[in-house]
Amino acid sequence: MKTLTSLLICCLFAASYVNAHTLNRPESTNYINGVTALNEGNPEKAYELLNAEINEHPQNGYAHCYMALICNYYGDMKMALDAVNNALELLPQDDNEYRSFAYYTRGTMLLNLKEWALAATDLTEAIRLNPEDTENYKARAEAYLNNGNYEASFEDVTTALKLDSKADVNDLVLQLLAAAPSAELVNRIASAYTLIK
């Protein structure tokens, strides 16, 4: 039995290794250094490097995706939306991880613009592509809450907590308690809230 289990584990690692190489994610210097700069909290340097990457490799959807984050950080919503739309056009269809990230990014931008229904649509696609990401559910819960779909919002908060019992959903739960239209929903929300305290 140990041999079979070991073989299955090796096959899973081999499959993920092949899939990662099939996707051909970029390895260019400007892209790698730009993402590194962004991860290190240096958006100015990241912008410079990713802009150079996009000028040199305009088909790099991954660079456009990160550029959307930077433009959003600097408050340039038009450029951020253009960048994320480019990312969604250019990212490989089979790269669920990054496509989910791009839909999540655009969904959160739409939340900031108070386009609740459009945000929920993008976040639903992010969830379809990556159903294990707690942040996708939290963001969609916010969209549903603001659109008056309290039951769906509560379901997403519950799912987020099931995926990560330490997920920061306190503000969402308090907003749901204040907005819930029925005592029955208030009681269900209150019960869930006591579980996270």
Give a quick precis of the structure.
The protein has 197 residues and is an all-alpha fold.
Walk me through what this model shows:
The protein has two domains: 30-91, Serine Threonine Protein Phosphatase 5, Tetratricopeptide repeat (Alpha Horseshoe); 118-197, Tetratricopeptide repeat domain (Serine Threonine Protein Phosphatase 5, Tetratricopeptide repeat, Alpha Horseshoe), CATH 1.25.40. 79% of the residues lie in helices and 0% in strands. It has helices at residues 2-23, 29-39, 43-56, 61-73, 77-90, 96-112, 116-129, 134-146, 150-163, 170-179, 183-196. The longest helix is centred in the first third of the chain and has 22 residues, at 2-23. The protein is elongated, with a radius of gyration of 20 Å.
